[in-house]
Amino acid sequence: MRYLLYRLRRLAIVLGVVTFITFLLVNVLPGDVAYEMAGMDSSEEEVQAIREDLGLDRPVLLRYAEWVGGVFVGDWGTSYINQENVWEAITDRFPVSFELMLLAQIIALSLAIPAGVASAFRPNGRADRIIGSLAFASVSMPSFMTAILLIFIFALGFGWLPATGYEPISEGLWANLRPMILPALSLALVEWTVLMRTLRAEMIAVLQENYIALARAKGMSNMRILLVHALRPSSFSMITLLGLQVARLLGGTIIIEQIFGIPGVGRLLIHAVYTRDFIVIQGCVTFFALAFVTANFLVDIAYAWLDPRVRTGGAHG
Amino acid sequence: MGDIILDVRNQKTAFVTARGMAQAVDGVSFTLERGRTLGVVGESGSGKSVLSRSIMRLLPSNALVPADSRVILNGRDLTRMTETELRRLRGPEVAIIFQDPMTSLNPVLTIGRQITEVLTFHMGLKRRAARDRAIELLRAVGLPQPDVRVDQYPHQLSGGMRQRVAIAIAIACEPDLLIADEPTTALDVTVQAEILDLLQRMVRDRNMAMILITHDMGVVAGRCDDVAVMYAGRIVEKAPVRDLFHHTRMPYTAALLASIPKITDPPHRKLDAIEGRPPDIINPPPGCPFAPRCLRADAGCDAEKPVLAGTSRHQWACLNPLGEEAPA
Q1: Phi and psi dihedrals of B231, rounded to 5?
Q2: Which are the contacts of B189, defined by CB distance < 8 A and separation ≥ 6?
Q3: Which residues of A fall within a CB distance of 8 Å from B95?
Q4: How far apart are CA B85 and CA B92, in angstroms?
Q5: Mean residue pLDDT across chain B
Q6: Predicted local confidence at residue B325, as pLDDT
Q7: At the top level of CATH, which class does the domain A88-274 belong to?
Q8: So where are chain A's domains?
Q9: What residue in A sits closest to B89 (Cα-Cα)?
Q10: Nearest neighbour of A233 by CB, restricted to B91, B108, B157
Q11: Which of A44, A162, B198, B272 is the most exposed place for a label (fewest CB within 10 A)?
Q12: What is the C-alpha separation between B160 and B185, in angstroms, rounded?
């Protein structure tokens, strides 16, 4: 319970800092939403009138305080451009981004775990060197490059998967997953390497432990030693990273959604930045910060599952 | 003669290191009969633990063992076996107990699982039966509330209890040979005797053979049949316990015995430590490895490496042994 309070306090600090900085940054950007609303040929007076109408001429701090007050009572504001409720705009699109990120992490993990275990089994062995070079090649390419390459090969070349688009889950699971595979893969191909290298390093250390020697002395097979005895004690750093990567993935989805035409929060944010629709920007950033903190909270819970010593509250002896 | 369980012949184990070859075990031979306990004594770095791992064929990949080294367990040569064949032996024929019970149990698996996996793999027990057998084993090693403990994790147990669990794992498949590698060094003195008593009882009840590795001469005195003293990777004296204590031949053994403080000593008496340090096993001296620290050494000791000699009952590797004064 005290731990939960501590967590919430940290969440409040993170949110405060993040939202205030974005508020300031958006306000120092040249141009504002009033230009956008007034249209191309409007006069300076018309723009100024809209500004006053929206209250944009008032001090930044005051407007920030108003916005924070609104968020506390559940009012995230409405878009200046299309009058859409910001909270609804985000929650409508977030499941799409969430699916993309989840799929990316699942692919990344299912590449990283077998590869990391195989590498750690014989460090500098043949498997380790092959996996190491593949990982190096994979991480050297930014996700948007990978995305274009994947589209070129699998969509344009073989025609197996669509290059762009999105289907809601109501169209069927496969119809929904098919256009998600390439975008998720583009994100995963960058992320898996870090997870793999982390798992490899920790597992090499764990394999030196006495309890691994005892497992060998009990006649257990290498496969069983790696997967049953060594994998769980070796995954702490990897799980920590999994939480931290959510931040990079949120950034990654913005670009990837743009390339693959996926209607997620990333696209909402990009559009809002172009039109200086700062109330939407503000909402998206706050939501991202929330998502990040939540993900890392889940990571903390995963520790307890991994290590019984965390579960019962400290070791004795 | 009883039936011979273990026959080690000329075991040599070296490690490839950045500085060169480290000859950790340098030509060790001995046999061990069913129902008997061999104490292996020596300082840190004398090759005791490497010897135990060499017997189990559990060596890291940078270890080198020459082709003429033989480890024969129950009449079968372990040095000629494949990894798969060896795995079937580890558990049912030979088991080991490590020094530190704090690190030799897996922290993320329950006590029960660490015992049952041996039973299901080697004895083909079903899950339910394996669990019952695990509880039975925990009761046999004197763990209180075995039916509760079986579902607990190692960190919920004290050091002594963990070593009892390690013993339960080791005896789970009724091995013929048990290697106890300093089983009590990491434990409180009060728990040490309990664990040693337990080991002794298990070995006697099950008619196993045991190799008890220790650096504590006191442990050897009461609980072993024979003693082998190791120095710089070699056995330098080997005899039944009584002979070794009363008719010590090798000066190193004598120095080890003298270094034990006696209850009759006056308080604050200086300990009789052995001067100097064990030799560098990467560049060993040409003669007797103990010569630089030996009070009886002469020019011959620095030139010639002594071999084990004596009777089949009592052997020693020394050019100027005690009890046989050198001719004037």
Answers
A1: -145, 125
A2: none
A3: 217-218
A4: 12
A5: 89
A6: 57
A7: mainly alpha
A8: 88-274
A9: A219
A10: B108
A11: A44
A12: 11
